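Batch job 17 of 40 flagged for manual review because the log was empty.
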Amino acid sequence: MSAKLPGPAKSRLTRFQSAFTVKKIALLAGLLLLISLMALAAFLWRSYQQVYVRKNVDYTQTPEPTPEPAKPRPFTMALLGYGGGSHQGGKLTDSIIVAKIDKDQQKIALISVPRDLWIPLEVEPQTYSYWKINAAYAIGSDDKRYSRKPIQYTGDAGGGELAKKALETVVGFPVDHFLALDFLGFEKTIDVLSGVDVQVARTFDDLLYPIEGKEEDTCGKTPEQIEATIATLSGEKALPEFGCRFEQLHFDRGVTHMDGVTALKYVRSRHGDQDGGDFGRAARQRNLILAVKKRVLDIGFIPKIVPFISVISAHLKTDVSIRQIEEMLSQVDELKNYTVVNIALTDQNVLRFGLSADRQSILMPKAGQDNWDEVHNFIETELNKVTNASASASPK
C-alpha cells in the first residue's frame, strides 16, 4: 500500500513534474530547432557548392605582388546569360553585361557589351586568335576541344575566367568576378521572385522568335525546296520562309508584369520591328536588371534565399564566395539609394561593323581593330557624367 503525500507536498510534486515536463518540451524544441538549422545550413552549403567554382592556378608562375589600393576599389562582375540545355551553341553567351558597383559614389554601372565584338582570346599559351566575344565562355568551358588552353582557363571556372579576361580588354578595368546563368535558370529566378514589373520602353512585335526544338523543322518543304530557298535567300532573309520555327511576340509600351518565360522572351527577342537588333536587346536586358533590383528590394530577398538556391544550383556558376554574398546581403538596404548608370557600346558611339577574314559580320572599335583607348575613354566619360551631375545637385 503506497503512502499518501500530504496536500502541500503533493502540490509541490505536481508543480515539479509540470516544470520538468515544460523543460523537456523546451529542450526537445530547442534540439529540433538546432537540427533543423544544421540541416538547412548543410542543404545551403551543398547547393552552393554546385554553384561556386574556383579558378585553376598555374603554380609554375610566380605571381607579381598586387599593391594595396589607397581605398577599396569598386566591385566588378561579368553577368553572362547563355542557352544551356539543348539550345544551339549552348555555351555561347547571349547576354553580356559588366556591372560595376561603387560604394563610395553609391553608383551601379551596367555596361552592355555586344556579343559580336571581335576580340583576341588566348586559346593556347601565348597564342591568340580572334573570336566573337560571346565565344569566350564557351571556349573556356570546353576542355576537350580546347585542350591546350592556359590552366587558368580550364576547369569549372575556365569559361568565366576567359570571359573576364576578354571583357577587361574591352572595358579597361579589372573584372573581378563572374556570374553565368542559363536560360532555364533565368526563368526560375524570375519565378522565385513571383515575377517582375518591367518598364517596356516602346511597343514592338517580333514575328521571328525561335521555338525551342523546332530549329531544324522543314515546315513541310522538300529537301529540294529547302536547298533552293537557302540558295536564293542568304542568312536571316531566309527565316520568314520557315515560319513554323517561330512564334510571334508582342509587347506594349509601359509597365508589364512578367513571369520567367515572358521575361526571357523579352530579353532575347532581336527581330522586333521597332526594338530589334542586338543593341535593342541589350537595352531591354538592362531594363530587366533594374526590374529585378527593385523587386528584390521591395519583397526583402532573405526569405527567398532557400527556394532560390534550391532551384538555381544546377543552372548557375559563379566565383563569388559565401563571405562576399553575406557582405552584399548585409548592405541590401543601401542599394535603394544607388544611382544606376546604363552604358551601351554601339555603332552610334565607339563601335563599327566590319567583316572578319572568314566573312563573319563583326563589331570592332571605330579607331580600328585592337585599338580600345576610345572605348575606355567613352566608358570613363559616361561614368563621370553621373558623378559630376550628382556633385552639382548636392547642397552646398
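Reviewer: the log was empty due to a logging misconfiguration, but the result itself is present. Residues 229 and 238 are 7 Å apart (CA to CA). Unflagging and moving on to job 18.
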